[in-house]
Specification:
Blueprint: E1 2-5, E2 16-20, H1 28-44, E3 47-53, H2 58-61, H3 72-81, E4 86-90, H4 94-97, H5 101-112, E5 115-121, H6 134-144, E6 147-151, E7 155-156, E8 159-160, H7 163-171, H8 175-182, E9 186-191, H9 198-201, E10 207-209, E11 221-229, E12 232-241, E13 253-258, E14 269-280, H10 287-304
Helix pairs in contact: 5-6, 7-8
């Protein structure tokens, strides 16, 4: 997969089918759209392109930070796995936000990228003020010789799969629903840092990572997880929160106790996969009470093995 920016030139003879959207999380509905794009492009003998943004447009348009489901590198991985030929990453800024919908279709899709096919979601909006929609895209596309395919919503549990719904499920700790909508377990990657050694002192050493502030996180609490270390997967139990019993930490910290692992972890990148929530975060009266609860939590998690 080739990665280009908005300012990069393409060959004059290159022909494209383009998938349009933000693709936060690259969830199952996104995957359905991308698979449709790739298959249609192969049938036509043209290259498939995902045209999307480095950052969430809502950060600029709504003036607030949208919590992301996936970091950019994870999105890129998934696009590559799904067989996309070219990924165009655009910086969403004021200049781009002020491009008229018609100019986006004529100037960018048709004239710049020689697009013959567009595949996008049923609720796609674009152009200055969000004035462009799928009806406009289809109407103008027909005049320019661009075939437009609108993908219907993908349903799960009588709800339309969307990034906003996934963020809501994460907020409530509903990890089974999140996994069903993503098509994989929600996970967080990070480099293991030194902690306060409380876990080691009470017999449950943990690998601690600090999640980035820009991302949507599961509800604070204890989870049955799996952890990937050096390509190997281990069963684990994870607490995500501020450790109210032992610290006055303001940051969210992810503490993972990995079962049947005795190697060195500090400085290593690990990936924690969240499978099921066990309980909410709780402040205990002391270390002794905390240790008793950890033993119960571990017993609950082992039952899920």
């Amino acid at each position: 997969m080739r990665i280009i920016g908005a300012g990069d030139e393409i060959g004059k003879d290159e022909r494209y089918g383009v998938g349009l959207g933000n693709f936060d999380g690259v969830h199952r509905a996104h995957e359905f759209l991308i698979t449709e794009l790739v298959q249609l492009c192969k049938a036509r003998g043209i290259a498939s392109m995902i045209y999307t943004f480095r950052e969430h447009p809502g950060n600029l348009l709504r003036g607030k930070k949208i919590k992301l489901i996936s970091p950019l590198d994870r999105k890129i991985e998934r696009f590559r796995e799904l067989g996309v030929d070219v990924l165009c990453l655009v910086d969403f800024n004021r200049e781009f936000a002020n491009i008229d919908a018609e100019e986006f279709i004529n100037g960018i899709l048709k004239n710049k990228y020689n697009v013959e096919l567009v595949v996008t979601g049923f609720n796609y909006n674009f152009g200055k003020g969000g004035r462009g929609n799928t009806d406009m895209l289809s109407e103008i596309g027909a005049k320019l010789g661009i075939d437009v395919v609108i993908v219907a919503p993908v349903m799960l549990e009588n709800q339309i799969i969307s990034s906003s719904l996934i963020r809501e499920k994460l907020k409530n700790g509903h990890m089974e629903s999140v996994a069903n909508m993503l098509g994989r377990y929600y996970s967080i990657r990070g480099t293991v840092e030194y902690g306060n050694k409380i876990g080691t002192e009470i017999g449950f050493p943990t690998a601690n990572i600090i999640p980035l502030e820009d991302f949507a996180l599961p509800k604070s609490g204890v989870y049955y997880t799996k952890t990937i270390v050096d390509g190997a997967e281990y069963k684990s139990i994870t607490n995500i929160g501020r450790k109210p019993t032992v610290t006055k930490e303001k940051r969210i910290i992810i503490e993972t106790h990995i079962f049947d692992f005795g190697g060195w972890l500090y400085g290593k990148e690990i990936e924690v996969l969240f499978i099921r929530m066990i309980r909410n975060e709780k402040k205990f009266d002391g270390i002794s009470e905390l240790k008793e609860q950890i033993l119960r939590d571990i017993d609950d998690v082992r039952k899920l093995f």
